[in-house]
Amino acid sequence: MTTTSLYGPVQSDLPRVEEALDSIKDTSFPALAQMLAHVLGAEGKRLRPALALLSGRYQRYDLELLVPLAASVELLHTATLVHDDVLDDAELRRKGATINHLRGNEAAVLLGDYLISHSFHLCSSLDSQFASRVVGQTTNQVCEGELLQIHHRNDLDLDQETYLQIITCKTAVLCASCCLLGATFAGADGACVELLRQYGQCLGTAFQIQDDILDIVGEESTVGKTLGLDMLKGKLTLPIIHFLATAPHEHRALLRSLLKSRDADKVERIRNLILPSPSVEYATWRAKSLISRARAAVAALPDSPSRQVLDTLADFVITRPM
Amino acid sequence: MTTTSLYGPVQSDLPRVEEALDSIKDTSFPALAQMLAHVLGAEGKRLRPALALLSGRYQRYDLELLVPLAASVELLHTATLVHDDVLDDAELRRKGATINHLRGNEAAVLLGDYLISHSFHLCSSLDSQFASRVVGQTTNQVCEGELLQIHHRNDLDLDQETYLQIITCKTAVLCASCCLLGATFAGADGACVELLRQYGQCLGTAFQIQDDILDIVGEESTVGKTLGLDMLKGKLTLPIIHFLATAPHEHRALLRSLLKSRDADKVERIRNLILPSPSVEYATWRAKSLISRARAAVAALPDSPSRQVLDTLADFVITRPM
């Protein structure tokens, strides 16, 4: 399945979201317009807008309401990528150079702020405050998740529960909110909204676990962003947490010392230690079981042109690098 | 006049704003709560909340509406301070250490994001979208101003017009919005709202010019934040722009070479060059004429318990380090 047909019945409406994003780029300040064109360019997969539109098909599908919402969540997501890349000193994103690499950290911090601000401003263009409230609350949680992650950096005793709390806040809640907003603005009933929210939450969590697995096992040329950063930046992810809790004693000790080291070949050595162990497989299993839960939520939804797509999308998140 | 009585009839309502700010600090994550307590502590002058409340006295003074607004603008202002300190590598703010100095740039970037997010979330708690729209638009402009400033860093040919555009966006628009929001939520008529908006805009511009003057002539112990940073960071301010345009040829050449240099005594030498010239006086004159315009707007307002305070406040902005 190619990306072009991935989003089924809403694929042909994504250009409307692109137009809304284009209108943000329309500024009288050329250097800013260039940066916006760079980060909002066509390389994004627009997963979050697609989730909002797909969920918005569960009753009255109203693009006038859904397009600003979909653009707003994509702006917010892009803002977190721009700031994440500053925090991670990353050089590669969506197969291009990061803004911090091209223009420096300061421009990247401000560009991220600008994107957050425009995200809220777009929400505030809708008649009801509901979207502003949900997006505000979601962003609060995203920031809390990121702060919790920074707080636990280099914490070799990080447990799975805290890891899940971090990734739920920083990634899953936004996916859940995309579904919740889309369904709510379509006028879906409460049960349907809740199933879609659960779907988004499970999908987002699995997505982040897969992202973390790819940081260890992926190829930069395929994934399109700098890899190995979690290990370099002292962010413990599920395979590492599992390894530190279950591997033979001397292997754990070796991983602990590698994680603390500043050796140039640190990432390579960690990879070589973890890959033969069952820890990546364990993380994959956790992601898969979340995807099963996402698919169960979809199965309980009333039938609609979106249902099959949401089901396929769930698998896609963990079977190919996104 | 002491700060405690500075805000006249709304002084006694500021504790309500503090309570609203306290509720943001109420998080289950202790490290975050500590950072919030640090940046939202009592050292702030709460000028922007005071502007919102004072403007809110121009008709029905309704604290239920004004307090969330006032807290929202203070959160936004604090966010810009936190991110500014990252951009400037500043160590001192409101007479205490900056968050980037205490916890590193990454925590400071995320804390700023968290404050922006909470600012919007508070706005979205109001019934009408009006505040969300104004705050969203204001934040867009603040970010544009900051980005324009970064873009013109080390631009020794920066002209006064661009400088004014930068400080209008990054500082004045927020003060103008505080007044506009306060007056609008009080139900003031259009003419009154516009006069208060003009007042805030002139006051904010003068405030920033005074801030920039203090960066050159101030004492850190009095001003309470790291000074000399504009010169170190290549940000041209009004006294410097004036000097580069009007000083004798050899003085201009010396200033240009000092601004480009990396000497340890750079700031001291720039100070010694500029202080005897009329350039600081020129900048002060520009600030004073803006304050005259602010006071003229106030004079055209209907009489109210706020009017005298707004008038006194205008002078205060340029006569003492704030």
SSE layout:
The structure is a homodimer of 322-residue chains.
Chain A: H1 14-25, H2 30-39, H3 47-55, H4 63-88, E1 92-93, E2 96-97, H5 99-103, H6 105-123, H7 130-151, H8 160-186, H9 190-217, H10 220-223, H11 229-232, H12 238-246, H13 249-260, H14 266-274, H15 279-299, H16 305-319
Antiparallel strand pairs in A: 1-2
Helix pairs in contact in A: 1-4, 3-4, 3-8, 4-6, 4-7, 4-8, 7-8, 8-9, 9-15, 12-13, 12-15, 13-14, 15-16
Describe this structure in words.
Chain A has 322 residues and is mainly α. Chain A has a single domain, classed as Orthogonal Bundle (Farnesyl Diphosphate Synthase). Chain A has helices spanning 14-25, 30-39, 47-55, 63-88, 99-103, 105-123, 130-151, 160-186, 190-217, 220-223, 229-232, 238-246, 249-260, 266-274, 279-299, 305-319, and strands at residues 92-93, 96-97. A two-stranded antiparallel sheet of chain A has the order 1-2. In chain A, α3 runs antiparallel to α4 (63-88), α7 packs antiparallel against α8 (160-186) and α8 (160-186) packs across α9. The first copy, chain A, is globular and about 60 Å long. The two termini of chain A are 13 Å apart. The A-B interface holds A 27, 29, 31-32, 79, 83, 86-87, 105-107, 109-114, 116-118, 120-129, 132-133, 135-137, 139-140, 142-144, 146-148, 150-151 and B 27, 29, 31-32, 79, 83, 86-87, 105-107, 109-114, 116-118, 120-129, 132-133, 135-137, 139-140, 142-144, 146-148, 150-151.
